[in-house]
Amino acid sequence: MAEEKKSKRTAGTTFPIEVDLKVYSLSAVKRACYRLAAVCATNIELPSENKALISCTPLDGTADPAALEADFLREINDGALREIVARETEGVRNLILAHALSRVALVDADLEDADYRDSDVINGQAPG
């Protein structure tokens, strides 16, 4: 679970957010940082195997650090949930994709033995 380090937070100053990597994946942490890139600069440090320390610096000196931290926590929870949904639906997604592509000719049989040097585009002519 993300934990707040006890410190006074004022606009424009860097503040830490500690994340337990037993609860959230590093990938979810990175996605949360990316989603907030327009409003704060972040730096991820891994002081131990199960802990990430995110330094967050608001880009706008008037931004509310408490609101940014709340946004970060929402984003990291969203990312974690998306990972769970992706993992749980992978088989169904692959089945749908396989079925959809099974009826599509991915390679044009006429082009299977063609030489790219014979292409109209290569020879400076409009395709047709």
Question: Characteristics of this structure?
Answer:
128 residues, alpha+beta, Gyrase A, domain 2, four-stranded antiparallel sheet, 2 helices, 38% helix, elongated, disordered N terminus
Instruction: Characterize the overall form.
Output: elongated
Mean pLDDT: 84
Low-confidence stretches: 3-7
CATH uppermost class: Alpha Beta
What report would you give on this structure?
This protein is of the alpha+beta class and about 130 residues long. It has one domain: Gyrase A, domain 2 (2-Layer Sandwich), CATH 3.30.1360. Helix content is about 40%, strand content about 20%. A four-stranded antiparallel β-sheet has the order 1-2-4-3. The protein is elongated.
Quick description:
The protein is an alpha+beta fold.
Topology readout:
Layout (H helix, E strand, L loop, with lengths): L2 E2 L10 E6 L5 H10 L4 E9 L2 E8 L6 H38 L26
Antiparallel strand pairs: 1-2, 2-4, 3-4
Helix pairs in contact: 1-2
